[in-house]
Write a structure and sequence with these properties.
The complex is a heterodimer of chains A (114) and B (112).
Chain A (H helix, E strand, L loop, with lengths): L3 E4 L2 E4 L5 E7 L5 E7 L5 E9 L2 E4 L6 E3 L9 E3 L8 E8 L9 E2 L3 E5 L1
Parallel strand pairs in A: 2-11
Antiparallel strand pairs in A: 1-3, 3-8, 4-5, 4-9, 5-6, 7-8, 9-10, 9-11
Chain B lengths: L2 E4 L4 E4 L4 E3 L1 E4 L5 E7 L5 E7 L5 E4 L2 E4 L9 E3 L8 E8 L6 E3 L3 E6 L1
Parallel strand pairs in B: 2-12
Antiparallel strand pairs in B: 1-4, 3-9, 5-6, 5-10, 7-8, 8-9, 10-11, 10-12
The chains are: A mainly beta (114), B mainly beta (112).
Chain lengths: 114, 112
Amino acid sequence: NAGVTQTPKFRILKIGQSMTLQCAQDMNHNYMYWYRQDPGMGLKLIYYSVGAGITDKGEVPNGYNVSRSTTEDFPLRLELAAPSQTSVYFCASSYSSRGTDTQYFGPGTRLTVL
Amino acid sequence: GDSVTQMEGPVTLSEEAFLTINCTYTATGYPSLFWYVQYPGEGLQLLLKATKADDKGSNKGFEATYRKETTSFHLEKGSVQVSDSAVYFCALGSTSYGKLTFGQGTILTVHP
């Protein structure tokens, strides 16, 4: 049981480039989330999904897109990368949306945009 | 809207010292409260949680009590170890799509 996996671990992009951050979970969780963590700050929610084919915006969605074609995978797409997107990105999943459930986090992707 | 405020860090302690990290929250309704820990180079993992007022969450010697009257969820440990060095996040769980609202995190460093 691998839990939540993310690739790549590190990436450097040039301004204007695009990339996809991969996230997968093997716990059969319906709910998946993308957060970004800026230095000295808590995590901010970018997008979330309540199941395959259903996604919605979080607090800071601008500059990102997501899709959810399967229960297991929830990729995050950055279009036209900007320095403001330099951050550590975490994917998470949970069994339900009750607010009492534990979210399980991946190891993160450290992205630098130069 | 929901918000979480943690004590300013970083916190530096000697081994076996007593630890308190303060956390207060603002929320509508009856949220669940969590402490997550992030060890160097890793993702976040749940340390403990409490789902209703007066509940006490505990794990690995850490404790926190959900105090509705003071809207607080302070983290305590009686005797810290070097291996407790990490970043600690207080978070509030909403019934709205399970969203977590995080505090800014507190860096804890424990010296031998």
